[in-house]
Amino acid sequence: MQTVQLDEKKNVTIFEDQLVTTEKRPWFGSMPSQLGEDFSFVVMGDRCGMATEGVFEKALDMAKDLKPDFVLAVGDLIEGYWKSAADTHQEWDDIDDKIAAMGLPFFPVIGNHDYSNQTMAEVWRERKGLDYYAFRVGDTLFLSLNTEHTPDEFSDAFIDIIKRITADVKREPERANEHMSAFVDELKGTLSPEELQGFGKIKLSFGEEQLAYFRRVLANNADAKWTFVNMHKPGWKSESEEYQELIQMLGNRSYTIFAGHLHAMEYARVGNAEFIQLGRTGGLAHGDGTNPSDENVVLWVTMRGGMPTYRVIHLDGVNDLTAYQPHQHNHGESV
C-alpha cells in the first residue's frame, strides 16, 4: 500500500490504494503544520437533496471563522442525477469553488446525489480521482468510504419528479415543506407498492476491491487509538452484508461512524462504537421540520488524549452581528 507523508513536520499520513493510477484527489487543501495529537474538526451534513440556497455556504463561512483543523463532509454536495457530463461538471464547478474559498482542508465522501449513474461516476473519477481513501492524524485513523460503488439508478420518470420538486424548492424555499409533501404524494401515485417499499430501504455497496483496501488499512494501523469512519448512507440501518463485513473488520477497536443521507441528527452508542447520523446542512428536511433533529446543523469534534467529544451547532442559531440592530430600551425592561 502506498503512503504519502504530507509533510515531515506534520503528524499526518494519507493511505492510497496501490491500484489507483490517477493523480486527481477528492480533498482540498493541506493539513496545518505541527498538527498534534489534540485537534478539532467539523463534520458537515448533506448539502443537497432539494437544497436551501445559502445554508451550506453559511456553514463554510462559519468554519472559516472558527478555524477547525479540517472539515469532513458526508456527501451529497450536489443535486446530481444529471444525464450529461457537462451539467455535472457545471454543478461541481460551483460548489468546488466555494469549498476552495473556505481555505481549510476538506475531506468529502461520495453521496448518492454525487454518483447517481455511470456518467456522474465517470465525472467524479475525472475530477477527483479516488472514490475512497484513508488518512491518519497521530494516533487517530480516518476511513472515507464510497457507499455508492454500484449506483442505485432511478428511472427517467422518477428523476423528472426529483428535478421538478428540486426546482420548486429553489424557487420557493419558504414553501419547502409543502413541496416535500407534494413529492411524497406524487411518488405514492407513480410507484408500485413494491417500488415504494424498495425506495424506503437503505441500499449501499462497497465492492470487494474497496473492502480489501480498508482491510489492509486497518491491519496496518491496528495501534490507532480511535478510528473515524465516514460514509454517506447509515449502514447500520441497512441489510448490507458488505457493511457487516466492515463492522467485523473494525472488531474491538474504539470507533465512530459518521453518515448522512436521511437529513436528521441522531446519536447511538453500542459498547465501544458510536453511530452518528448527521443532520442536514442545506438539504431539505425529511420530517416536518419541527423536531430539533431536522434542523440544519454541523458537528464540532474535539480530540483530546485520544478521545472525542462532540458539540452540535445549529446553524439557525448562528447569526451575523449585523442582525442585531440598535433599538430603544425602556428602563423598566431591566427591572
Describe the structure using short key phrases:
single chain; Purple Acid Phosphatase, chain A, domain 2; 335 residues; 30% helix; alpha/beta; 5-stranded mixed sheet
Q: Given the structure, what is the number of helices?
A: 8
The shape is globular
List low-confidence stretches.
3-9
- The CATH level-2 architecture of the domain at 2-70 and 108-152 and 203-309 is identified as 4-Layer Sandwich
Mean pLDDT over the full residue set: 91
Strand order of the largest sheet: 1-2-6-7-8-9-11-10
Fraction of residues in helices? Answer: 25-40%
Question: Over the alpha carbons, how many angstroms does the gyration radius reach?
Answer: 20 Å
Q: What fraction strand?
A: 15-25%
How many strands, which pairing sense, and closed or not: the largest β-sheet?
Answer: 8 strands, mixed
Supply the helix-strand structural class: alpha/beta
Q: Briefly note the CATH topology name of the domain at 2-70 and 108-152 and 203-309.
A: Purple Acid Phosphatase, chain A, domain 2
What is the strand tally?
A: 13
CATH class of the domain at 2-70 and 108-152 and 203-309: Alpha Beta
Separation of the first and last Cα atoms? 69 Å
CATH superfamily of the domain at 2-70 and 108-152 and 203-309: Metallo-dependent phosphatases
Give the SSE string: EEEHEHEHEEHHHHEHEEEEE
